């Protein structure tokens, strides 16, 4: 079985220093997540408590939004390969999301929230694959895992700041929840300004036009077999990885007060941020597969824990451990995608990767919500744990062959 060997440990002379693009993209993600996470921990409670939505509807909204975004990730990644330009799509994606996200403040029904979330995720779909391809192009191979981990750490640091802003607005300033949603416009606007001013294009070889038909799906056959085999366990895992909104609802169900829900979210993202860069660096040394398999196994344990939990402190503990799952897997999976495909195909590859994750999120969230409504939350979380175990077993068996260029 072939696999991607770990890279050589960096010497002091080659110690990693983030490039301009890595720092700029990290700053943009920090600000964007701060904006998004002002809203995210309050949204499921707003939907269920204020707008009267069912748990199943929460799954439809979150899963549907991710699925729509996924189709655009595929197209935008392919297009950025064709034109060998990433920045215009990155800026456009962040701009669209930042403009529409705060409009949740004026929503009067769950259907309106769904429409707003769909457009928000359109922005994410446009920017996601080109951004990851640009990040890979801006980083040497031996530091790729560390760079993706650093980017995820900044993203999650923003997700720490966002809920704290929401908490301050609710508790200290006494804002109504709808007014808090408007505050999300401020860091969103700053993110767009940073993207425009500081992100720089990184030129790469264009895809040979004589070999590629004008269709966003045609480059699929040009991606290596090892990449497609790797998508199988990722798909299986994602089918059990429903929206984290359900975790917030479960925490509330276990007795965590509504006022403290943003702090639970802060805890989760503190752990995500603290663990992402070290885990990414570790993947550069020991390989990507061990960290992904370990992360998915830990995910199964966390979901089993949510299935069996009975006390509020159980939710706090499980959210902390859940953050480690993201640290082990998020940046590592993206670094693996970059490892498996040549540079000129990375936009397309990241598009397919993110499309796989996003499209599977729709049935994952819908089924999870339906199982919760009909059989109870313990059964739903047990289902997620079982799928994670299956995915980890498959990933441990998939051959991983690095790209030659």
Automatic annotation (TrEMBL):
The Major facilitator superfamily (MFS) profile domain, residue ranges: 21-403
InterPro entries: MFS, MFS_dom, MFS_trans_sf, Sugar_transporter_CS
This protein's UniProt keywords: Membrane, Transmembrane, Transmembrane helix
One Gene Ontology term of the molecular function aspect: transmembrane transporter activity
Pfam families given in the database record: MFS_1 (PF07690)
Transmembrane regions listed in the UniProt entry: 46-72, 153-173, 179-199, 227-248, 254-271, 291-307, 350-372, 378-400
GO cellular component: membrane
Localization of this protein: Membrane
Domain of life according to the entry: Bacteria
Membrane topology note: Multi-pass membrane protein
UniProt xrefs under Gene3D superfamilies: MFS general substrate transporter like domains
Name recorded for this polypeptide: MFS transporter
Source organism of this protein record: Gemmatimonas groenlandica
